[in-house]
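User: We ran a pulldown and think these components assemble together. Before we commit to crystallization trials, I'd like a predicted model of the whole complex to look at. Sequences follow.
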Amino acid sequence: MATSDKLITVSHVTKEFSGGSVRALNDCSLEVSKGEVVTIIGPSGSGKSTLLRCLNLLEVPNSGTITFDGTVITDPGCDIDLHRRKMGMVFQHFNLFPHMTVLRNITLAPVELGLKSQEEATAQAKALLERVGLADKADEYPIRLSGGQKQRIAIVRALAMEPEVMLFDEPTSALDPEMVGEVLDVMKELARDGMTMVVVTHEMGFAREVGSRVIFMDSGHIVEENTPQEFFAHPKEQRTIDFLSKVL
Amino acid sequence: MESFLRLFTDPGPASFVNFKFLPKYTPYFVSGIMNTLALSVVSVILAVLPALLLALMRLSRSKAVQRVSGAYIAVFRSTPLMVQLAIIYFGLFNAIKLPNVTIGFIRLNSFIPFVVALALNSAAYVAEIFRAGILAVDSGQMEAARSLGLPKGKAMKLVILPQAIKNVLPALANEVVTMVKESSVCSAYGMAELMWAARNVAGTTGISIGPFVLVAAIYFCIAFPATKGIEAIERRMRRGDQR
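Assistant: Here's a predicted model for the assembly, 491 residues in total across the polymer chains.
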């Protein structure tokens, strides 16, 4: 694989919380190529969300480097705001802006950052809403939406920045079971369209069917990574086997 | 016991029931009410921007900036308003010549020193209200805004502050009510507000209790319904907020 295909390179990243008393990530290294759908699974507290949040520096690593699109974003001199535009993020709890309409939620960043005029942004937002089946919700406030609708809007809000990679932090964990499907469907469609995705998830079905690679984490370490077929059929590490026996 | 009872039965000057200064001195109390309301409303409004600045400074990443704001708040919250007023009135405004202009019923040269002192005091308290309001906004809001590439200042202005300000409006209204009462200290330096009206009328007529009973009733009739009204609005806002 050519090096130009590497979109994200995580190199020996360590992250500590509470002044070093909690080590959430321990010497993690990882590469994500363009077009890949990488799923990160593992038990609660294994560091998978922390690893994902390090990718756009919502958490700043204590050591190690992260390279995005050829730029070392962990450099102190790097303007992370510029790179975050290219990294869409979807949260477990949606984090829609409650004081804005759906449309304003989606157009806020492209317009405020001067990337699009309000008209362009509105047209794009409406097209994206159409794609996720929520065209009629443009003028609603988030409070009027179901969890599944909120999460689809949150995905659209991130897509409106035309990112090169989408980061998902347990996007279906806060949803009622009957709404998980509608969000996963949107994510599957994104994957089919060739979007590079890094997904922290508990949805083993998604990891198996949609993922191009699975990463298993435990106690701050990347324990094992493989293609979904190999990973689920022939897990190598004992910790992976123990985990899979509990969740499958 | 007998002398105590006389306070309520005797129609003499030292009596709770002697309101003979009315209606002749009514205009004093009316203009007193207007000045008191003007002082409290204007001083809290003037306090809003400095308070917002102080709150943002306290939440700044820089320890030095935090300390400047923290020191201001500590000084104004840990000294009596009466003392602050004296220092600002005799100190600061001794050096500044104010224009002799009247806007409506407000005489600027006597109004400004008091309103500035009250605003500087209020800013310390309102800053803490704002800080609490900003911290009460879910941290996911800032993360979502920053993840979209919005710089910290824009995220604060567009996403966090609009939500924080809605949260703090009731507390801000309560600060006005507090100021209605606290502004009575201005009477000590001749500001013609409600308490000053009582002192003046008592001094002029020799009726020593009645004027103060009257202004106590007026303060109560402003503060109590206002507080209840704010509570009612707060309850309604909370109902609309359920997510």
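The beta strands of chain B are 102-103, 106-107. That may be worth checking against your pulldown data before setting up trials.

User: Thanks, that helps.
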